[in-house]
Design goal:
The structure holds 3 protein chains of 3 kinds. By secondary structure, chain B is mainly α. Chain B has helices at residues 2-22, 26-46, 50-74, 89-108, 116-122, 131-139, 141-159, 182-204, 212-228, 240-259, 271-298. Chain B has 2 domains: 1-74; 130-307, no CATH class. In chain C, 86% of the residues lie in helices and 0% in strands. Chain C has helices at 6-31, 35-58, 64-99. Chain C is elongated. Classes of the chains: A mainly alpha, B mainly alpha, C mainly alpha.
Chain lengths: 113, 307, 100
Amino acid sequence: MTGSVVLFVVTASALIGIGLWGFLVQAHLLRRVLAFNVVGSGLFLLFGALGWRGGGVDPVPQALVITGIVVALAATAVALWLVGRFAEETGRADLPEDRREDRQEKSSAGGRP
Amino acid sequence: MTVLFDLVLCALMLLAALAAIGGRGLFRATVFFVAYGITVALAWVRLGAIDVALAEAAIGAGLTGLLLLGAVARLRRAGAPEFPVRAGLVPALAAAGVAGATGWVALRVPGAGGLWTEAGEALPLSGVENPVTAVLLNFRAWDTLLESIVLLAALLAVWALAREEEWEAPVGPPLHARPGGVLEGMARLLPPVGIVVGVFLVWAGASQPGGAFQGGTVLAAVGLIAALAGLVALPRPDSGSWRTALAAGPAVFLLVGASGLALGGLLLFPPDWAKAMILTVEVFLTLSIAATLALLVLGPPQPRRMP
Amino acid sequence: MSAIALPDVLTIVLTGLGLLFFLAGTVGLLRFPDTFSRLHALTKADNVGLGLVALGVALQAETWGQLARIALVWVLALVAAGLVAQLVARAALVDRRLRG
């Protein structure tokens, strides 16, 4: 395994961690969708870095990753339009179970339409 | 020297990801996400995967960024707690643990294997010269067929969010470009170039990096620019010709795949016919991918309120 | 050390100079106070930087096709930068009018 493969594997794992952290600590649904996409691209990168070992460029993981990128976009589109519709109905971009009463009062201006 | 370049690139990716996750303000976070997507595309170039780099730049950074920016604008008035909500040691430790375990396992995966020898040996029988296209449209044609159906299902899910009374409206939000403005001028200038690039990417995909997904995305972007500038009317979801365009790709894929039944099996392309069959599938698939991606970004039909 | 060919020297000089302009543009983006002066820094400095980098890379092109592609990238990036600068400036103007 060359140095660069190790480097990309470590970076990809770190990206998965960063995305996962964002997904865990954030309540804003748009930020969660964004974090989910960072986890996804980290996973793809990990896949690509592992397919890169041995010097040859393996077309099979590449094709799978292209499929993954397109499916991730489809999922992101559904999620974001769902969030938009949810915000239209409730006036909020976070879920009730992520709110505590004290936070609700401090939260930025919003309110029902 | 290349290790130094990789080091800088990886550092940039991590910084951009951190800024996208933790950036103050949704707009800033989204802008950093697009920058992050571009650095990831560069990483794919370094990993020798030009096809993936094209897909990541066009779809992962471009279209996803556009979707996120649109959502930021729509959610501007929605209430939400300040960031971060549950900052503390436990989530940080959990995320670090998962990242560490993933990296540790990945570095320990036996290095042997890979499928490039098998893919390389079967390549002359696949009908195309680009091994990635061969995998996508021949060896793993099932994946790609089902993926095109997933795209369609996602669009149906987005359209299902429309209210009953909105169903008659054109898709997408009301747009207000200034007539005769720079955007309109640009939207008249770019499409010819974009269409050539998109069609070239599909055609080149048989022998060099490119393909139906990358080409289709460029064509979708051309359509989106024209739509944003108000140069083309947005379709209604019940438009027959648009529905035909959306379904043509999966339908032709299925038909061509089924014609393989007579020659060996479902989605099996005999070497003599493979090139023609794959090209037919790709043309219609590109059309459907372009239409589906553009409509996914535009969203469900929305009412036009008079200003 | 063997002597470096003239095109290589020019490439290093031109791309290095281009990167300096990018650096200046980025400093302007980070340090300037409002949207308009930031746009001014970006559009001016980065476009010159892009031209210099493109020129430097063009000296390494092996075929006319590669040269044409570099030129196409240069033109498209320039046009896109000009368009986006216009749109950002307009959005900032509208924003200011709404607030003020």
